[in-house]
Fold this protein.
Amino acid sequence: MQVIDVLQEAARRVHENVKHLAGTEESGIDHGRGAGGDISRRIDIVAEKTVLDYLKEIRFECTVFGEECGLVELSSNPKGFVIMDAIDGSTNAVRGIPFFCCSLAFAPEDSLGSVTDGVVIDLYSGNLYSASKGKGAFMNGKKIQVNKENGQYFVVGVDISGISPEVLPKLAPIISTSSHVRHFGAVALELAIFAYGLVDVFVDLRNKLRITDVAAGYLIAKEAGGLIVDEKGEPLDCKLSYDKRISFVAAANKEMLVDTMKKLGLPHNLNL
Ligand code: IPD
Ligand code: CA
């Protein structure tokens, strides 16, 4: 069984196990603070347990780097890390807002840049986005690409939840010059729909994202032809760590990326 098949099957099982829970009172029951620093809700715990149980069932030799459960060693001889955000967009899931997902990635080394496989399943629709390094990105098995048209409906995604008053003004130039700005509340799925071509540029400068939030969406976006850089204009990369926080700018092509970086007042002499 290929790694991508393992991640896909785990994601499908999460979909099966949580679809009745979303939007219910039970989904929001507090389970204390998880390794990623947020309160774990019942729906997060059910989803994580589903993935862990499946990986144990098939004896997948890995270390799990989970948003709630922390590091879980499933083998003394791991092939790498399963980077798990079993529910991304937990608030949407608990409130029943139909935009939340399960994000699973595999990295042979302890870095974001080494991610070889990623799966994001939309837990409302069941749509499954996937990618393996060098093999392209897919939605329900069909190849996908970032949007290549500079069309009329140029859509900019931003994440501004909890943004600091110092960083907020930096976004003003892109927000005020864009007629179509969107913020959906689950960054892994936002990266997946960017990869699918529904959003042209996505910006998160809050320095709040964890590796678990972005690992799978990052690979899917790149494999779909998207460009993703950090605030310095360098290709996004970092070590797997629970302390690390990430900001990034993603764009469907270099022209859009340079233009966005310029507007944000960030380095735009990009060597990509
Ligand atoms: C959150 C979502 C949200 C982003 C937060 C993340 P969670 O993940 O991705 O869009 O604004 O910074 O923490 O907590 O729902 O897994
Ligand atoms: Ca998350």
About this structure: The chain has seven helices and 15 strands.
